[in-house]
Write a structure and sequence with these properties.
Its cofactor is pyridoxal 5'-phosphate. The chain is an alpha/beta fold and 460 residues long. It has helices at 9-19, 59-63, 72-84, 95-106, 120-138, 158-162, 167-170, 197-215, 241-251, 304-308, 332-346, 349-370, 400-412, 441-459, and strands at residues 38-42, 45-48, 53-56, 113-117, 145-149, 180-183, 220-225, 255-259, 283-286, 298-302, 374-379, 384-391, 396-397, 415-416, 418-419, 430-433. The chain contains 14 helices and 16 strands. The longest helix is centred in the last third of the chain and has 22 residues, at 349-370. Bound molecules: pyridoxal-5'-phosphate.
Length: 460
């Protein structure tokens, strides 16, 4: 770093180009262009290394920065905590660990215990391990299968990819762990049954029951679902789906694992996505918005009934949850999470999310009337998608390069939006939006006006 000056931004760009391997990125183009380097953020806005300002309509790219950038109070909470105690392994407790768990559980009737880790993938892996351990303890090893849904995503590790319903994400990374079994998706716009509305929802849930009966209910331990599928196309399950899913889980004694890594912490206008549907999950996993990206944190939340199964034979040295998460002992995560939650409460961000989400959905519906290429818009709260089709009647997806062109045109005009990316073959055609929960009406209108212009430019 000889002679390095942090204002020498060209040096930063060259260092990045020479040494950083970016996630989900083909690097060949950077031989002739520069990667985007984000240097600063404030509220809904970020600035890149060239000084260009953007409205961030995707909360840090992957629906994470729920309370927006530049929150000094979160930085202060982290600093104060890590100067006092930065770390001790999770076999011991910590002040913020205990207090955040208490605050979180108070929002989750029926839940009782919080296990700390540091990413969404890791939080989900913990559930899979708990389910397997319960199978061995209670069911002679039989009830060990974990069901997951087509188009859902639960993480980047081999374990979570074994529960990955996005075949492009998984391609070339197998073989995966055994006894993970897929169930059909529930996206009515891409209907698998000639039904609609509530009847469609109930049928899609019954498709899960068919898989359970095929596999043998005594072999199925858990069902892992996103409340609203995120990267697989912003899929809001139809009416009629969730009540049947809950019934099916109860009928066959299957633990229900809701992956709230994206929906959790206000994204859909309630603290958790599952609240919209009155679900009673056995496991809930949270990460991204828990500390809005100010610190890395992932949590696995479960019931007292599940927790009890890991302490009922204290004389057996193998009876407890024999898992280690080194960085689950970092105190920055829960310290940031407490302050993050206070901000959501004190600034009434759940109400704002509901109001601004309704505005954004209405704006997107307006774009659907104006641009034939918008085949469907869907979502809840500030978690929305617009599916682009070449032909409305056949619903044939537009070419992926055109979706990319819309995203690039929005960025050129100063708005960062997302798109389903390396998810389901042929269906990387949904634009995605997840602005911070602090978005104002002007921010929302600026985002959708830009999308309007970009659609006009790319599709005429
Ligand atoms: C629904 C869902 N679950 C889990 C994960 C994995 O989280 P992480 O990237 O923190 O491991 C993601 C990440 O995008 C996600 O969208």
């Amino acid at each position: 770093m000889d002679g390095f000056n942090e204002n020498d931004i060209r040096h930063v760009v060259e260092a990045d180009k020479a040494h950083v391997w970016h996630h989900l990125t083909q690097h060949k183009p950077f031989e002739t262009t520069d990667p985007r380097i984000i240097v600063e953020g404030k509220g809904m806005r970020v600035w890149d290394a060239t000084g260009k300002e953007y409205i961030d309509a995707v909360s840090g790219g992957v629906w994470t920065v729920n309370v927006g950038y530049g929150r000094a109070s979160i930085a202060d909470a982290i600093r104060d905590q890590i100067v006092k105690l930065n770390y001790f392994a999770g076999a011991a407790g910590s002040i913020p660990g205990a207090l955040f768990a208490e605050k979180l559980i108070a929002k989750m009737p029926g839940m009782a215990r919080v296990y700390y880790a540091n990413s969404g993938s890791e939080a989900n892996e913990k559930v899979f391990k708990m389910v397997r351990q319960i199978a061995h303890k209670r069911h002679g090893g039989r009830k060990r299968k974990i069901l997951y849904r087509e188009r859902d995503y639960h993480g980047s590790t081999i374990g979570t990819m074994s529960a990955g319903g996005q075949t492009e994400r998984n391609a070339h990374y197998g073989p995966f762990a055994p006894d993970f079994v897929s169930v059909p998706h529930c996206l009515e716009y891409r209907a698998q049954w000639d039904l609609s509305g509530e009847a469609y929802g109930a049928r899609a849930a019954e498709a899960i029951e068919e898989v359970i009966l095929r596999e043998g209910p005594d072999t199925v331990g858990a069902l892992c679902l996103e409340p609203i599928t995120a990267g697989g196309g912003v899929i809001v399950p139809p009416e009629g789906y969730w009540p049947r899913v809950q019934e099916i889980c109860e009928k066959y004694d299957i633990l229900l694992h809701i992956d709230e890594v994206v929906c959790g912490m206000g994204r859909t206008g309630t603290w958790f996505g599952y609240e919209h549907y009155g679900l009673r999950p056995d496991f809930v996993t949270l990460a991204k918005g828990v500390a809005s990206g100010y610190a890395a944190i992932g949590v696995t939340v479960t019931t007292e009934a599940v927790f009890e199964m890991f302490k009922d034979d204290a004389g057996d040295p193998l009876d407890h949850f024999r898992d280690i998460s080194t960085f689950g002992g970092c105190t920055a995560g829960p310290a940031a999470a407490i302050e993050n939650m206070r901000i959501i409460e004190d600034e009434a961000l759940l109400d704002n999310t509901t109001a601004m989400g309704a505005r954004m959905l209405a704006n997107l519906e307006g774009l659907m009337e104006k641009h034939r290429v918008v085949g469907d818009v869907r979502g809840k709260g500030l978690f929305l998608g617009a599916e682009l089709v070449a032909d409305r009647a056949s619903r044939e997806p537009v070419e992926e390069r055109l979706v990319g062109a819309v995203v690039a045109e929005c960025a050129a005009q100063g708005v960062i939006i997302g798109a389903t990316n390396r998810s389901v073959p042929g269906f990387n055609n949904t634009l995605t939006f997840s602005p911070a929960l602090i978005a104002t009406a002007d921010d929302i209108d600026a985002i959708t006006d830009t999308v309007d212009r970009a659609l006009g430019k790319v599709f005429g």
